[in-house]
Write a structure and sequence with these properties.
With about 625 residues, the protein is of the alpha/beta class. It has 21 helices and 15 strands.
Length: about 625
């Protein structure tokens, strides 16, 4: 639309100037230009009618089929809801008439614009561009206000299109032999879910997830076993630079509206935030790969001889590989190229050939769905869909719930302590923090996703008294400074954490680190994601409200949270701050902890414990 307006602007102004000069022979061929313009408008109208709609499958997000795509057969599970285009609900103008109507509007706008002096118009355009940017990726259109000036996480997190669907093969072929053959009968959220057909498939799929997560928790490492490296050597591959270092070097051109380098400096921690104090950095949510890599290189169990190793770490920055192509118009072959090269390289390594990658681990800094592109989309890569990638362990900020080798680990927060003392000081500070807001929500609406509950939550929040709920609108750039979000959470009792473009949110961990009780609306946001870092009893650290109740207006979230007693809040906050918080942080690359285990230590202890069981199983 914008390009059409400016095209028409040029045409109209040229015509005006030609008329003033009395020389029409040298003017533009207006007939040809108008014809091209009408064709462009018609094409835009056709593309607009093919936009994707957001639907949900129970408590899960699923990307709907395009309107011109064939409907799934009844045998395909789970069956998608029927997509109904607007043309079936009401009559529309013929495309030719619609194009003429839009063209008339553009013509009027362009006539007005041509009366504005060119210099003034250029200045206006420069101002608008300096304060906002438009990102078009695939079928997604986002306007990110002030994102060229700020690290607007809303805009960048919008660069995630989850493919959140139930794998039919897993539901049909599932057996109780999961995670080293260990499974029990845990108490499950879905125990009361019954039904046939679609409801039955959903219930069965959720039970599979719960059994896997419970099994991972039950086999978790007990205590701090990080110092016991006897027979548990860790080998770090020295990959060719194109798989990690050279990806970091492309940070300046990775995201169109900002220089990403400042967020990847200091070994992925980003630049310091002096206002928040020691250990606080402008860490981006996609910085996990370099952060983890820098810590692994200094791990006490690291060995330099492959023959002495039991666990093999592959420092591939796959998330940054996705990010560098995400906003560029390149083919799927280009997006998949580096991952395929890595697999070919690994297949030539003796440790990989010995166990087919079962003793290898990858840390990937984006959600699992971004590495599981489907054939009919252009989103992400197919790296985790490769046959060779089914055996290794994959650590991600959001796991694919039906793959037991996908394990979720915490999003990086902005706080990276160096010592036990740093953690203790922060614990004392947030326990003393004066919480003047009952509820807060830092986020943005999803106008293109009508099934998303964010709009309902925002309405409930802004209509409540000021002390009851405070809304920080990320769509306006208000969330660009990390200190704004942390200060809001430190002043709030409860922090609303609805799903965004995918079930999980970095904001969940920001709220926990700030001592703010997260309010979750989808169990896939946290309960089914982080078995090594969050306990099974989610009532100890969060409040759960079913998003379906919110969507159908059966509950007012603010009013419901007012009924939680002060004693309950204090108990939850004490547990969050003193029990959970240390294990959700990633210390800096030289951190030394004696009393606490941070997120990295917990993860490595569980990996080494898991590989020890694999080794004993192989021997037996």
């Amino acid at each position: 639309m914008i390009s059409q307006i400016f095209g028409s602007y040029i045409m109209q102004c040229t015509q005006v100037r030609a008329n003033k000069l009395g020389d029409t022979n040298d003017s533009l061929d207006l007939h040809s230009f108008s014809k091209m313009q009408a064709n462009s408008v018609s094409n835009d109208s056709r593309r607009a009618s093919m936009s994707k709609q957001q639907i949900f499958l129970e408590n899960m997000q699923t990307p709907p089929p395009e309107e011109n795509q064939e409907e799934s057969s009844e045998e395909t599970l789970p069956p998608p809801e029927m997509a109904i285009s607007m043309s079936k609900k009401r009559s529309r103008l013929p495309k030719k008439a619609e194009a003429e109507e839009i063209g008339s509007f553009i013509s009027v706008i362009s006539r007005l614009l041509c009366r504005i002096p060119a210099v003034l118009l250029v200045l206006v355009i420069v101002f608008l561009w300096s304060s906002s940017t438009t990102v078009i990726s695939g079928n997604i259109f986002h306007l990110c206000v002030s994102s060229r000036k700020l690290n607007n996480l809303y805009c960048l997190s919008a660069g995630t299109q989850p493919n959140f669907e139930i794998p039919v093969s897993i539901v049909h072929n599932y057996s109780n032999s999961i995670v080293d053959g260990f499974v029990e009968n845990p108490v499950r959220i879905s125990d009361n879910i019954t039904g046939n057909g679609r409801d039955g498939v959903v219930a069965n799929a959720v039970k599979i997830v719960e059994e896997q997560v419970w099994a991972l928790r039950s086999r978790a490492a007990k205590g701090n076993s990080g110092g016991d490296c006897n027979g548990r050597g860790l080998f770090v591959y020295d990959l060719p630079p194109k798989f990690n270092k050279e990806l970091l070097a492309q940070c300046y051109d990775m995201v169109p509206w900002m220089n990403f380098c400042k967020y990847l400096s200091n070994e992925g921690l980003g630049q310091p935030i002096m206002k928040l104090g020691k250990g606080w950095h402008q860490t981006h949510q996609y910085s996990l790969e370099p952060i983890f890599h820098s810590r692994v290189l200094k791990h006490p169990c690291r060995v330099y001889d492959q023959n002495e190793a039991k666990l093999f770490y592959v420092p591939f920055y796959g998330g940054l590989d996705i990010l560098r192509w995400h906003f560029k118009n390149v083919s799927s072959d280009v997006k998949d190229g580096l991952g395929l090269e890595l697999v070919q390289w690994l297949q030539s390594q003796p440790p990989w050939m010995k166990n087919s990658g079962k003793d290898h681990v990858f840390v990937l800094g984006k959600i699992s769905w971004d590495f599981r592109r489907k054939n009919n989309t252009s989103w992400g890569t197919r790296f985790l869909e490769l046959d060779q990638m089914q055996n290794p362990v994959k650590l991600l900020i959001e796991r694919q719930p039906w793959h037991s080798n996908d394990i979720g680990i915490p999003h990086p927060t902005h706080f990276h302590p160096h010592s036990d003392e740093d953690i203790v000081k922060w614990q004392l500070k947030i326990m003393k923090s004066k919480r003047t807001n009952l509820v807060s929500f830092a986020g943005a609406a999803r106008p293109g996703a009508p099934e998303n509950i964010r709009s309902v939550l925002i309405k409930d929040c802004v209509s409540a008294d000021t002390w009851k709920c405070r809304f920080l609108d990320c769509d306006s750039g208000a969330c660009g400074q990390p200190e704004s979000i942390i200060e809001l959470f430190m002043e709030s009792e409860f922090c609303l954490q609805p799903p965004g473009d995918s079930p999980t949110r970095k904001s969940v961990f920001d709220s926990l680190v700030s001592g703010c009780i997260p309010v979750l609306f989808d169990p896939f946001t946290a309960y089914y994601q982080y078995p090594w870092h969050l306990p099974e009893d989610h009532t100890r650290y969060s409040v759960f409200i079913d998003q379906e109740e919110v969507r159908s207006m059966k509950v007012n979230v603010v009013e419901k949270l007012m009924k939680v007693s002060v004693r309950e809040r204090e108990d939850m906050r004490t547990y969050i701050v003193y029990e959970l918080l240390p294990g959700l942080l990633y210390g800096d690359s030289t951190s030394l902890f004696d009393k606490f285990q941070d997120a990295f230590s917990i993860t490595m202890n569980n990996l080494l414990e898991r590989i020890s069981r694999l080794d004993s199983t192989t021997v037996n």
